[in-house]
């Protein structure tokens, strides 16, 4: 029995090495060399219409209603026409929406490659006296990002666009301010921890080819800083909820 136990690990190791040798040529064929970049770049992109980021409620004299949701519009739809007006920018939509008078209006949109038309009845806002559809829209993004890698064979590259992440904050509008603040607190504490840990203990570089100034100590400090920061923020939010402070509820 003892002899069998000794042979089994050796046999398994031999089989693993054999499979590695046989698979090496196939893996080598499928590999592709990418060039790390890590450079800042300006990014601008537009959409073929107005992208529905989220649906919202309109505060009326009778209570809250959501005309767009009741009409069948969904987040992710691409609005191309409002009434008799084609809309491709936020300015186009604002001009068309200024003509709303409370009567049902036709909204044409693209969903899954198909052109669909819905009829939506605007609601009169009790806040500003304007007719609203209850839509959060976006016609494009512009800002800065980071090119992460470049493929010399195809010319393709990967990039992280910061405005995309910030645009999604509109979807958090119905939640508490604490939810919106949470990612900023985590990012701030991560950067703070990384900075001080890197300054004090940073000797070994993390990835010099991608970011020459990043260190292993800074990475660990950033991770620890975000955990501590979010833990403290959680305690503060719980205390604020207990005291019934508005921003936390």
Structural class label = alpha+beta
- Average pLDDT, to the nearest integer? 79
- Overall, the morphology is flat
Q: Please give the share of residues in helix.
A: 40-55%
State the order of secondary-structure elements, H for helix, E for strand.
Answer: HEEEHEEHEEEEEEHHEEH
Distance between the termini: 65 Å
Sheet with the most strands? Answer: 7 strands, antiparallel
- Poorly predicted segments: 1-7
Radius of gyration: 27 Å
**Number of contiguous helices:** 6
> Can you count the beta strands?
13
Question: What fraction of the residues are assigned to beta strands by DSSP?
Answer: 25-35%
Report what the structure shows:
The protein has 249 residues and is an alpha+beta fold. The protein has six helices and 13 strands. The strands form four sheets. Strands 1, 4, 5, 6, 7, 10 and 11 form a seven-stranded antiparallel sheet that branches. Strands 2-3 form a two-stranded antiparallel ribbon. A hairpin with a 2-residue loop joins strand 2 and strand 3 (63-65). Helix 5 packs antiparallel against helix 6. The longest helix is centred in the N-terminal third of the chain and has 29 residues, at 2-30. The radius of gyration is 27 Å and the shape is flat. The termini are far apart. Mean pLDDT is 79; it is low at 1-7.
């Amino acid at each position: 029995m003892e002899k069998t136990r000794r042979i089994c690990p050796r046999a398994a190791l031999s089989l693993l090495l054999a499979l590695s040798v046989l698979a090496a040529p196939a893996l080598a064929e499928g590999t592709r060399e990418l060039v790390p970049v890590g450079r800042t770049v300006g990014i601008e992109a537009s959409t073929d219409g107005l992208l529905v980021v989220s649906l919202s409620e309109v505060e009326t004299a009778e209570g809250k209603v959501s005309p767009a949701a009741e009409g069948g519009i969904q987040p992710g739809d691409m609005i191309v026409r409002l009434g008799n007006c084609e809309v491709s920018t936020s300015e186009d939509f604002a001009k068309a929406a200024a003509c709303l008078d409370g009567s049902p209006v036709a909204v044409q949109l693209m969903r899954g490659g198909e052109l669909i038309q819905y009829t939506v009845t605007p609601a009169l806002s009790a806040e500003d006296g304007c007719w609203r559809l209850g839509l959060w829209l976006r016609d494009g993004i512009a800002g800065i990002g980071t090119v992460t890698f470049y493929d010399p064979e195809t010319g393709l590259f990967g990039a992280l666009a910061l405005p995309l992440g910030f645009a999604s904050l509109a979807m958090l509008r119905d939640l508490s301010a604490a939810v919106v603040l949470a990612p900023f607190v985590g990012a701030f504490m991560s950067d703070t921890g990384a900075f001080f840990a890197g300054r004090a203990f940073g000797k070994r570089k993390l990835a010099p080819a991608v970011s020459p100034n990043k260190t292993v100590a800074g990475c660990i400090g950033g991770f620890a800083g975000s955990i501590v920061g979010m833990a403290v923020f959680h305690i503060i939010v719980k205390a604020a909820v207990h005291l019934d402070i508005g921003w936390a509820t």
